[in-house]
Amino acid sequence: MAYELPVMLNCEGRLCLIIGGGKVAERKASALREAGARLCVISPLLKSARLAGWADDGSIEWKARAYREGDLNGAFLVHAATDAPDVNAKIAADADRLGILVNVASEGSSGSFTNPAVLRRGRLTVAIATSGAGPMASVTIKEQLEHQFGEEYEAYLDFLYRMRTAIKDEVELPEQRRCLLHKLYRLDILEEIRRGDNANAPWDPDKIKQWIEQNREE
Q1: Angstrom distances, CA of residue 172 to CA of 175, 210, 213
Q2: How many Å apart are CA 59 and CA 180, to the nearest integer?
Q3: Average pLDDT by consecutive 10-residue portion of the chain (218 residues)?
Q4: pLDDT value at residue 134
């Protein structure tokens, strides 16, 4: 069995296409909008009210027609999300020929990528894929992980991000940086957040700087 390769794609500002205008297309569009993609939907009709709203306010570009050859030119990735399997297959073949990433809603295995179930806690992203065992299995596992990784992880990772950024800005020597980062990850800040101590913003900039100065020479 060949396993799929997990990756995190940077779609910000990149042209991403969705062929289709229904609920599946809406879900794909929602995820791509969150990722900052430049989004174009191609479909004669927008059956999804949310898609129609995004088209009206300019959040997405809508081409009100059926898919045709040449539509994929310049795209970073494409979702084939029509209700016609033969059209989806044509889109997949065109994308493969052009070297464009493609997801096929009607038959995931015929595309070059699939969309996992996703759990987000601020900067934390947990993706769950079951290699064909079924979407319900992914949903069940996601629900279990939601209890394990609670809302406190959003504040925790924001804290780690601010600390890591400050260390990189304040400390020039690589060895000192490594030492401070090791000390940082040993701090039990997550437990403090769970107890409600400084839950909204653990450590202000002055305290961060003070901690760096106290620990950089130890």
Answers
A1: 9, 16, 13
A2: 43
A3: 90 99 97 97 98 98 97 98 96 98 87 94 95 88 96 94 95 93 92 74 84 84
A4: 81
* Residues 42 and 65 sit within 8 Å (Cβ to Cβ): yes
Q: What DSSP string describes the chain?
A: -PPPPP-----TT-EEEEE--SHHHHHHHHHHHHTT-EEEEE-S----HHHHHHHHTTSSEEE-S---TTTTTT-SEEEE--S-HHHHHHHHHHHHHHT-EEEESS-GGGSS--PPEEEEETTEEEEE--TTS-HHHHHHHHHHHHHHS-THHHHHHHHHHHHHHHHHHH---HHHHHHHHHHHHHS-HHHHHHHTTT-SSSS-HHHHHHHHHHHS--
Question: Cα separation of 86 and 174, whole Å?
Answer: 56
| Residues forming a β-bridge with 121 | 124
Question: Tokens 């310049």 sit at which residue?
Answer: 74
Predicted TM-score (pTM) of the model is 0.86
The domain defined by 15-115 carries CATH number 2.40.50.100: no
Write down the domain spans for the chain. 15-115, 152-215
Return the pLDDT at 203.
85
The pLDDT, as a whole number, for residue 3 is 86
Position 217 scores a pLDDT of 72
